[in-house]
Specification:
Layout (H helix, E strand, L loop, with lengths): L14 E9 L5 E6 L5 E2 L2 E3 L6 H10 L3 E14 L4 E13 L7 E7 L1 H7 L2 H10 L6 E5 L6
Parallel strand pairs: 1-6, 5-8
Antiparallel strand pairs: 1-4, 2-3, 2-7, 5-6
Helix pairs in contact: 2-3
Length: about 150
């Protein structure tokens, strides 16, 4: 019998999510209203264990019916309260048509101003960061406000 004691892991556990900021030629951004809590967000979700980040973004966005090409990583965001790290990618439309899902009670193309008016700060900043050129942003927040 071993004298080694099994305890909690020595490193913290984190969940990884992905989101796609899909920008149309007219500058509008694909958004969803979540069915579970009514918040407006860019489409996204939990990255599966054996999935590449770009594949996860494509899968999550295409649940809305919109087919996309993933362009580039635009930000890394950590929810310090829940241990969630979100990777956000800018995407462009390749085809398809918007559709509702069990997870999205509405799917709309919003202007950047509408995004900042409808979304909580922690989600709106992901969209505004994705609309910028340059290096990806790295930000932390507590689930409601940026740190």
């Amino acid at each position: 019998m071993s004298n080694l004691r099994q305890g909690p892991p020595s490193t913290p556990l984190h969940s990884v999510s992905v989101a796609g900021v899909v920008v149309r030629e007219d500058g509008r951004v694909l958004t969803i209203r979540r069915a579970d809590n009514g918040t407006w967000e860019p489409p996204g979700g939990v990255l599966e264990l054996a999935e590449a980040p770009e594949d996860g973004v494509r899968r999550e966005v295409e649940e809305t019916g919109v087919k996309v090409e993933v362009d580039r990583l635009t930000g890394v965001y950590k929810n310090t309260a829940r241990g969630i790290v979100a990777l956000v990618f800018r995407c462009r439309v390749e085809g398809g048509h918007e559709q509702l899902t069990d997870e999205a009670s509405a799917v709309e193309w919003l202007t950047p101003d509408e995004v900042t008016g409808r979304m909580a700060e922690v989600y709106a900043v992901r969209v505004t960061d994705a609309l910028l050129d340059g290096t990806p942003q790295v930000r932390a927040h507590d689930g409601r406000r940026l740190a």
